[in-house]
Amino acid sequence: MKGHARSLADATTDEVVTVRRILFGCLQAHCAELGLHEGDLVRVADDGSSTLTLRSSDGRLVRCPPELARFVEVEDHRRP
Q1: Is 5-76 assigned to CATH 3.40.50.2000?
Q2: pLDDT at residue 1, as a whole number
């Protein structure tokens, strides 16, 4: 069963989430340029600045502006 979907903008530092859906095609393209894709597992490295900093599962840092993060739907990562 999948976790509850919510906005990436609501995620907090050290939280691990899966990018479930990126709303709107133009935002999907912008997120891809930043290195963020649907299905990615990310950890919020810092939610305190003007830009949300994420660490991908392969160790890359992705900086996501909060106005974009509102349109990225995530779900809680559940470990098996």
Answers
A1: no
A2: 43
